[in-house]
Amino acid sequence: QVQLVESGGGLVQAGGSLSLSCAASGRTFSSYVMGWFRQAPGKEREFVAAITWSGGSTYYEDSVKGRFTISRDKVKNTVYLRMLSLKPEDTAVYYCAADPTFSILTVRVHARYSYWGQGTQVTVSS
After folding, report:
1. Is residue 4's pLDDT more than 90?
2. By C-alpha distance, which of 29, 41, 43 is closest to 101?
């Protein structure tokens, strides 16, 4: 059973930075794709970033490109999301997700991910 545990959320002023972590356990993740999604109140869950576990290929939602960086540590089995220049519109619950198969066609689609963490709140004040 795959378990994903996020940490690192919090309250930050606009322009500030935060780093999220997602500790993964329960499988060998060599073929997995790992993603970060977010959901603001009253809105649908949206793609933020993803990374392939083996090759480290990365994918970003347009509004976070240049501000957010996704990475993974194979030894620690942890995925990170480094967020810079945060904006109030980045406020949301951020979720870590994982799936054992990768497709460039569906990497941004939340329904294709099999495993989810519990989420961590990120609040950016103006």
Report:
1. yes
2. 29
